[in-house]
TrEMBL record, chains A, B:
It comes from the Bacteria. It is an enzyme of class 1 (oxidoreductase). Residues 5-348 form the Isopropylmalate dehydrogenase-like domain. This is D-malate dehydrogenase (decarboxylating). It comes from Streptomyces rimosus subsp. rimosus (strain ATCC 10970 / DSM 40260 / JCM 4667 / NRRL 2234).
Length: 352, 352
């Protein structure tokens, strides 16, 4: 029987509350489909550890994860720890150190979820944002001069490489070819005149190599507007690191599912483990109360199943998510219900 | 009687169709309130000129505008001319050469307009995006190396200066103080770790100097989501060049008013003329058919009236916009009607 070695990094806040439900779901579908999981939990890789020991994870953190088949992460961040410490001390080093250059963020409108957007009707909106995840605008290159003086300035370099852009575009075009065959590239080459014209050129090259995909491009300002005006028209949307970050949150909001949205940080070559994480943060305002929505973590676990070679098990999980939303009133407060995390998970497991 | 010297730059596409309605409105309110306009029209500063003569405007273009009290611009751009030629040859040199460092973009939900967002109810959403307009992510600094080879890369430098950020923040805080006293700053200092932490520091400094304003900050991804989930909570939103571009289009879409949205490019010190322009582009798909929505240009003219010291005349114009939408069915096709530009303008003038 295949066993998958999973690293669990619960992290901070509700991160610690949403991973146990995801594990319950994984073990259940594993039993049904004939595979198992063994978990190694890195419980203290968190802001608490940072406050105690001065680092979010041990110096050999990445080495401890290296032999795992995948990583499931809860959430990172706490109000009393600056983001550049918490995120750049744990989440981002894993994304970069393990060359997880594809960040995949599916968005669907589920029946039973009220979308804030009139056009976002269940069954109609089903898109994936493919975000470049390791270069671009999120760059360590830059700094500050004349600190504290009137002439102070900060500079930051965006870096787009042909290799870095092409590999994520290839992934996105291949994904579109296996879906509805439509791809939209996010750009802003009319304003950002060095990096994004280069991005556009590479999209055109990749598009020529994928004649089976109908592709177009939109400037990020117009594209954000179209996500609201006509979300159903999108299939695969490929975007740079920053634009993908914005568009995936926006799309999740349009779908009424910020608390449900999942993400896969993929190393498609499987040189290193990939990482799966809900898009919601650590939510300090509701942490510790047992009412966190587990669906983001559970859907992320489904993306992990897919990556581990179990697409049918993955589909079982997303079907159960759809079913619990469509067929029951049980849901956590963020979705307008009164259920606790555990009760919501129980109900989903019954439908699995 | 005060006379204002206005430079008209109709530009391309529907730009040429929306300025005459704006002029009619200006002349009408001028007569009522006791001031006049003299117009100098720069009709051939356009893509057509570029295709004929190799430049969007003459080499001494800015000098010809310098003695004007304000500039009213239609739209710039044509599919057969690259954006870096059309925009960087006309629009952006004016913004930068005349130090128009504040880009002001009001967004309102008008009665009679269907918003795509359920929470965007008439009378509830009334916000202004204050966008930094001359530095930041829209930078000329950068380039390409190893062109055409596998190791090719493009770099682009974002530059944020204390002087450049502080002056637009000051403007935004002062604006908020005169409105509902609430300001939200758009950031992404958790991912963009050099420029945006600096932005955040300057916001905090400015906030401390404006105790009468209640301010907060949101990361751009979460903020875009909140524009959809709860647009009514915002008053003044201040943002960098790129984030302001995205948020203002998004907010206009949320309000159902992409075709109505106006912009003021302000040089608050009045060293140079300020420029007023509808946010919609040249819309080549409908250009030449006389059906362009003139409200973006007319609302932009109202912002110009304000800037020229005629707030009451400006309010008359925005009241007429509200009235034509609330009280009549006459409207252009983009708003679901069948009226031509001229007929829509006639109706608005009757209500003025
Ligand atoms: C056309 C483009 C360069 C411009 C911008 O991004 O500034 C436009 O989108 C705008 O918002 O005025
Ligand atoms: C927390 C932040 C650095 C992160 C990002 O922008 O990548 C988050 O917003 C995300 O989308 O995973």
């Amino acid at each position: 029987m295949t066993n998958h070695r999973i690293a669990l990094i619960p992290g901070d806040g509700i991160g610690t509350e949403v991973l146990p439900p995801a594990q319950r779901v994984l073990d259940t579908v594993g039993r049904r489909h004939g595979f198992t999981f063994s978990y190694t939990s890195f419980d203290d890789w968190s802001c608490e550890r940072y406050l105690r020991e001065g680092a979010m994870m041990p110096p050999d953190g990445l080495d401890r994860l290296r032999d795992k088949d995948a990583i499931l992460l809860g959430a990172v961040g706490r109000p009393d720890v600056p983001d550049h410490v918490s995120l750049w001390g744990l989440l981002i080093p894993i994304r970069r150190g393990f060359r997880q250059y594809v960040n995949l963020r599916p968005v669907r409108v589920f029946e039973g979820i009220d979308s804030p957007v009139r056009g976002a009707v269940a069954g109609k909106v089903d898109l994936v944002v493919v975000r470049e995840n390791v270069e671009g605008e999120y760059s360590e290159i830059g700094g500050r001069l004349h600190r504290g003086f009137p002439e102070e300035a900060a500079v930051q370099e965006s870096v787009f490489t042909r290799a870095g852009v092409t590999r994520v575009l290839d992934h996105a075009f291949a994904l579109a070819a296996g879906r509805r065959g439509r791809l939209t590239s996010a750009t802003k080459s009319n304003g950002i005149v060095h990096t994004l014209p280069f991005w556009d050129e590479l999209v055109a090259e990749c598009g020529a190599a994928h004649p089976e995909v109908a592709w177009d491009q939109e400037h990020i300002d117009a594209l954000a507007a179209k996500f609201v005006l006509d979300p159903a028209r999108f299939d695969v949307v490929v975007a740079s690191n920053l634009f993908g970050d914005i568009l995936s949150d926006l799309a999740a909001a349009v779908a009424g599912s910020i608390g449900i949205a999942p993400a896969a940080n993929l190393n498609p070559e499987r040189e290193f483990p990939s990482m799966f994480e809900p898009v919601h943060g650590s939510a300090p305002d509701i942490a510790g109360r047992g009412i966190a929505n587990p669906l983001g973590a559970i859907w992320s676990a489904a993306l992990m199943l897919d990556h581990l070679g179990h697409p049918e098990a993955a589909a079982d999980v997303t079907d159960a998510i759809a079913a619990v939303l469509a067929k029951t009133d049980v849901r956590t407060p963020d979705l307008g219900g009164t259920a606790a995390t555990a009760e919501f998970t129980d109900r989903l497991l019954e439908l699995l």
